[in-house]
Amino acid sequence: MMTYRLCDATYAQPGGTMWIIADATRYNPDEQPIKNNVITGKTYQADTLEELAVLIDVDAGNLQKSLDAYNATVDGGTDEFGLKTYDKKMGNAPYYAAKRAPTVHHTMGGLKIDTNARVLGAEDQPILGFYAAGEVTGHIHGANRLGGNAFLDINVFGKIAGESAAKTK
Fold this sequence. Notes:
By secondary structure, this protein is an alpha+beta fold. It is built from five helices and seven strands. The strands form three sheets. It has a three-stranded antiparallel beta sheet with strand order 1-3-2, covered by helices on one side. Strand 5 and strand 6 form a beta hairpin.
């Protein structure tokens, strides 16, 4: 699976991190969000790839090879990790770099609940007075979910959990 290969490759890097590289094609240097990220140190900015390589302490030749491979993928080449989201070539200064590490952003398992948001215990029986909503719950989406659905979980099942708890004496 592509995600595990990317995570494994990232963990194999020094410090278990990777750099996300972008340029002015993705981020307009005059817009406040990217300016704020540079000012706060969340993102590095440089006028050349060589300068960026120095700022993030990577080999400039390897950084150029990565950019060339990215651009080749935009032209129809194959990404070594199977990614297919490349749509615009990079090469327009300024360049940006932000450090990243693999993280869990949504769990697909957790407490099993019923339609009243009651947590189910042994043999799928509700546990008296125990309610749950949001990402702590499991089995709602199956093996995957659409982005943003955690908000739906929280709002819908949070309301149901509150109403169910209020009815319990």
